């Protein structure tokens, strides 16, 4: 059979081109995925701009690392290992762990030093070429991390698996949001909003989301998803507000998911209680953080932790949470584009263009 897969290849910055690739033959222990959808996140826009060109294989590359779809063909060993069969609906993790580096053998496979994975890692020069979700088909390497998905939920809401797994790891697994805790989330992007929902699910008492005047509709979404209070940092002093909202007890955890802004980190030091945790997930590019109050961190034993991705457990928790809370979470799904409008999808993500509706979660489907 000589059917081809169609993919969007980022040939150079801001230049996505449709290309065909042969659908790979499967062996004993690998598979081919027919893509149902690929979620977009801020990284996709950075990549499109050309800011990620030192990462992995560079260009030309098929972007898209939040991939879900149906098993089209699978070898017998892979079917056994992943416990899936042809036709099953699955999500795959962005990272393909090597299984042998120091981080992998310690169980921290998301920090795998081999830098293999989907969307951001291998260029199209690496056979069998189909390493990204902006495509009709994706190659499933023998070490791909595969999660079985329920079949009764919509494509759009199911593509929240990846961002929700991130949010669950950051606010719950690392941040420790749980029964009775106070959580502050800086930045109401899709991950911040999903973190508010995850903190609610975990039982946190106070869930405070901060943003700016431009985030008005997102702060409203935060309240719908479980936030107990929202703060516009342009009109209110966020530190004083958090203190007032908690009766002076301050926050157990501050999660920073804001992009570019460094003020929330400095404010976070004053918002978090002694021994509390600040979880850093928002990238700041080259923005310097001068005047960081190191002494407050030392004297109050504040913990600072950086987080990047999710993992097996948080992905399973995300699937389970979507299963139970699909309707509530679906308010985040604002846009869906087909592959032939891939550039429009990425530009909408970067707020370069707008159809008037706030782009919170964008899904790309083959069409
Ligand atoms: Zn992402
Ligand atoms: Zn490894």
TrEMBL record:
<comment type="similarity">
    <text>Belongs to the zinc-containing alcohol dehydrogenase family.</text>
</comment>
<dbReference type="InterPro" id="IPR050129">
    <property type="entry name" value="Zn_alcohol_dh"/>
</dbReference>
<dbReference type="InterPro" id="IPR011032">
    <property type="entry name" value="GroES-like_sf"/>
</dbReference>
<dbReference type="InterPro" id="IPR036291">
    <property type="entry name" value="NAD(P)-bd_dom_sf"/>
</dbReference>
<keyword id="KW-0479">Metal-binding</keyword>
<dbReference type="Pfam" id="PF08240">
    <property type="entry name" value="ADH_N"/>
</dbReference>
<dbReference type="InterPro" id="IPR002328">
    <property type="entry name" value="ADH_Zn_CS"/>
</dbReference>
<keyword id="KW-0560">Oxidoreductase</keyword>
<feature type="domain" description="Alcohol dehydrogenase-like C-terminal">
    <location>
        <begin position="192"/>
        <end position="322"/>
    </location>
</feature>
<keyword id="KW-0862">Zinc</keyword>
<dbReference type="InterPro" id="IPR013149">
    <property type="entry name" value="ADH-like_C"/>
</dbReference>
<feature type="domain" description="Alcohol dehydrogenase-like N-terminal">
    <location>
        <begin position="27"/>
        <end position="150"/>
    </location>
</feature>
<dbReference type="InterPro" id="IPR013154">
    <property type="entry name" value="ADH-like_N"/>
</dbReference>
<protein>
    <submittedName>
        <fullName>Alcohol dehydrogenase catalytic domain-containing protein</fullName>
    </submittedName>
</protein>
<dbReference type="Pfam" id="PF00107">
    <property type="entry name" value="ADH_zinc_N"/>
</dbReference>
């Amino acid at each position: 059979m000589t059917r081809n897969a169609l993919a969007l290849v980022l040939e150079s910055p801001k230049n996505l081109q449709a290309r065909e690739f042969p659908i790979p033959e499967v062996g004993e222990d690998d598979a081919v995925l027919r893509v149902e959808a690929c979620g977009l996140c801020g990284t996709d826009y950075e990549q499109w701009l050309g800011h990620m060109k030192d990462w992995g294989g560079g260009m030309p590359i098929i972007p898209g690392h939040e991939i879900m779809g149906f098993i089209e063909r699978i070898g017998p060993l892979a079917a056994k290992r992943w416990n899936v069969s042809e036709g099953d609906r699955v999500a795959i993790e962005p990272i393909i762990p090597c299984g042998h580096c120091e981080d992998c053998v310690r169980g921290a496979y998301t920090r795998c030093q081999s830098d293999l994975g989907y969307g951001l890692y291998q260029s199209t020069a690496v056979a069998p070429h189909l390493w990204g979700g902006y495509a009709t088909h994706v190659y499933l390497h023998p070490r791909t991390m595969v999660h079985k998905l329920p079949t009764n939920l919509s494509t759009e809401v199911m593509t929240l698996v990846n961002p929700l797994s991130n949010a669950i790891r950051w606010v719950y697994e690392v941040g420790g949001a749980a029964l009775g805790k106070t959580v502050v989330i800086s930045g109401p992007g899709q991950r911040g909003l999903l973190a508010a929902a995850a903190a609610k699910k975990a039982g946190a008492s106070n869930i405070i989301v901060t943003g700016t005047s431009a985030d008005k509709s997102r702060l409203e979404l935060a309240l719908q998803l479980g936030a107990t209070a929202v703060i516009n940092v342009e009109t209110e002093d966020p530190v004083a507000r958090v203190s007032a909202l908690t009766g002076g007890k301050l926050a157990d955890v501050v999660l920073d998911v804001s992009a570019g802004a460094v003020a929330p980190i400095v404010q976070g030091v004053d918002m978090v209680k002694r021994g509390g945790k600040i979880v850093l997930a928002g990238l700041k590019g080259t923005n310097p953080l001068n005047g960081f109050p190191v002494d407050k961190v030392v004297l109050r034993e504040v913990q600072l932790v950086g987080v990047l991705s999710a993992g097996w457990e948080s992905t399973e928790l995300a699937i389970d949470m979507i299963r139970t809370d699909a309707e509530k979470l679906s308010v985040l799904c604002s846009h869906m584009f087909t592959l032939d409008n891939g550039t429009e999808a990425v530009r909408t993500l970067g707020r370069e263009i707008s159809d008037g509706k706030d782009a919170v979660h964008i899904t790309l489907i083959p069409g």
